[in-house]
């Protein structure tokens, strides 16, 4: 497991839910590449409404249901590892927004793979 505490870099990629890379959802390709690169973690968040450079509003409201809602992929790791990953994002993201933020990791803990124990049992 990757150890991560203290100063880190967060990259957030804003794309459309229907954006694809070789017939696969782009957000899924980004997450799988981040995993293969050994980065600390990646999460995908689906938006309920938004617009980007095209100025077209995408929304989940019933009367104007969009099939291409905004999606944000967030990846956090050390600055060195995130910057090494940026060329892959450059290859993948044709339309969208990629931003970098400095952040501080306060806690980064996973589950014990064998027991499923998160290390919180018995804590009060």
Describe this structure in words.
With 124 residues, the protein is α+β, with helices and mostly antiparallel strands. The protein is 20% helix and 34% strand. It is built from two helices and eight strands. The chain has helices at residues 26-36, 79-92, and strands at 6-16, 20-21, 24-25, 41-46, 49-50, 58-59, 70-77, 97-105. The strands form three sheets. The protein has a four-stranded antiparallel beta sheet, with helices on one face. Strands 2-3 form a two-stranded antiparallel sheet. A two-stranded antiparallel sheet has the order 5-6. Strand 2 and strand 3 form a beta hairpin. The longest helix is centred in the C-terminal third of the chain and has 14 residues, at 79-92. The radius of gyration is 17 Å and the shape is globular. The protein starts with 5 loop residues before the first strand and ends in a 19-residue tail after the last strand. The model has no long low-confidence stretch (mean pLDDT 86).
Quote the beta fraction: 25-35%
The helix-and-strand class reads alpha+beta
Helix fraction bin: 10-25%
| H and E string | EEEHEEEEHE
Calculate Rg over CA atoms. Answer: 17 Å
Indicate the overall shape.
globular
The poorly predicted ranges are none
What count of helical segments does DSSP give?
A: 2
Strand order of the largest sheet: 4-7-1-8
Amino-to-carboxy terminus distance:
26 Å
Q: How many runs of DSSP E, i.e. beta strands? A: 8
- Average of the residue pLDDT scores: 86
* Main β-sheet description: 4 strands, antiparallel
């Amino acid at each position: 497991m990757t150890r991560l505490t203290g100063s880190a870099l967060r990259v957030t990629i804003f794309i459309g839910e229907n954006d694809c890379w070789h017939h696969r959802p782009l957000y899924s390709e980004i997450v799988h590449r981040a995993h293969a690169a050994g980065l600390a973690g990646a999460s995908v968040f689906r938006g309920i409404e938004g617009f980007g450079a095209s100025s077209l509003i995408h929304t989940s409201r019933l009367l104007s249901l969009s099939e291409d809602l905004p999606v944000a992929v967030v990846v956090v790791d050390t600055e060195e590892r995130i910057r090494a990953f940026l060329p892959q994002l450059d290859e993948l993201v044709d339309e969208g927004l990629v931003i970098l933020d400095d952040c501080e990791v306060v806690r980064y803990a996973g589950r014990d793979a064998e027991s499923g124990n998160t290390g919180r049992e018995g804590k009060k």
